[in-house]
């Protein structure tokens, strides 16, 4: 946890980086709210927020903040390496975003796109077990933050291709 805090301090060292983290967090939160709004006919933002339980709103805010911080740390690590993201890294970030969307399913009817992909049985399973999906999404995000923190801090050595910092 200490390495994540140190990497966050390094990653959020400028006002621009803090703005980027906040913008990504707000964007992810907006995505989590707008997906059911646009996929459900007759739905609007105010109605969607009124029917979403407060626990799910807190979960959405937590996942949004974690994704914003992860993006900022990841961007800092890539700038330090002066490399483009690999397909594996991009897929991991998309997977984390997808897990965030699945973990915030408050009602099956609100996510007709999920219903179309997973069917009635799959969507019922996801809604019934959304707290487990939430725990998995948070755990996956924290693991990604830990791995990215090692790159930002320069402490992962040959495993990630970064030369370790000298004390």
TrEMBL record:
The keyword Transmembrane applies. Keywords: Membrane, Transmembrane, Transmembrane helix. The chain crosses the membrane at residues 21-39, 51-72, 93-119, 131-149. This is Uncharacterized protein. It comes from Candidatus Uhrbacteria bacterium RIFCSPHIGHO2_01_FULL_63_20.
């Amino acid at each position: 946890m200490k390495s994540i805090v140190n990497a966050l301090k390094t990653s959020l060292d400028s006002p621009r980086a803090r703005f980027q983290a906040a913008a990504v967090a707000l964007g992810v939160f907006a995505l989590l709210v707008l997906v059911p709004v646009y996929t459900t006919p007759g739905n609007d933002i105010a109605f969607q927020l009124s029917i979403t339980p407060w626990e799910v709103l807190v979960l959405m805010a937590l996942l949004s903040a974690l994704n914003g911080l992860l993006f900022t740390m990841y961007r800092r690590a890539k700038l330090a390496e002066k490399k483009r993201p690999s397909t594996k890294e991009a897929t991991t970030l998309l997977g984390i975003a997808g897990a965030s969307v699945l973990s915030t399913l408050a009602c099956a009817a609100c996510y007709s796109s999920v219903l179309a992909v997973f069917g009635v049985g799959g969507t019922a399973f996801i809604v019934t077990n959304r707290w487990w999906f939430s725990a998995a999404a948070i755990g996956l995000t924290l693991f990604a933050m830990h791995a990215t923190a090692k790159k930002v801090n320069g402490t992962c050595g040959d495993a990630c291709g970064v030369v370790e910092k000298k004390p």
